[in-house]
Design brief:
The protein has eleven helices and five strands; from the N terminus they run E-H-E-H-E-H-E-H-E-H-H-H-H-H-H-H. By secondary structure, the protein is an alpha/beta fold.
Length: 241
Amino acid sequence: MTIRILIADDEALLRMAFSTVLEAQPDMAPVGEAADGTQAVRLARQLRPDVVLMDVRMPGTDGIEATRQVVEVSPQSRVLILTTFDLDEYAFAGLTAGASGFLLKNTRPEELLTAIRSVAAGDAVVSPRITRRLLEHFRPHIPDGTGTGTGPGTDHDERLSRLSRLGRLSAREREVLVQVGRGLSNTEIAATLYLAEATVKSHLGRILQKLELRDRIQAVIFAYECRLIQAAPHRGRPTGH
């Protein structure tokens, strides 16, 4: 199967470089290029690519908003956010907007190709350890789910929706979700819960389906939003809050 890829970046030289690397692969085909977010959304709707390489900082509609719109108009398309720094301030926003992961712009070609293939297969490309660092770094920006904000009940409604979906999980699936939220890989989860790795993968697939999530990244975010994961390890008994 050929992976069809849309490249969205306002730098023409970078688009050309990415395209050159992709064209050399027998299982990949760049199908379009966009110089801004608006064009990326339009082309995603028109071309229905398997993967979109999405720059963050673009004129007009930026990569974050474009990602949100792309996953709406072309749900089958997976988005990889392109960032300049390992913990770019926009990376978390991109993931919550529906991206399946993020890549550094200076990533090696072989890493880029591996990431694209992983995302096209339905996996996430942010490693568990990077996921953990990313979420700890941006923990203050994650909704706490308490519903105490000033909005007209929106936070409360979202929390109820999350809790309702969480209730669909079996006890074992919830255990797996907690470990995913902690940033463990499937191999680590298998060792922690004394399961076969294939069983962990099966549980994760059912978790994503029941929670109506796209990939592992969204599962991690969901676990944090439901307060299943503490922001950082601490000693002593819980406070009860």
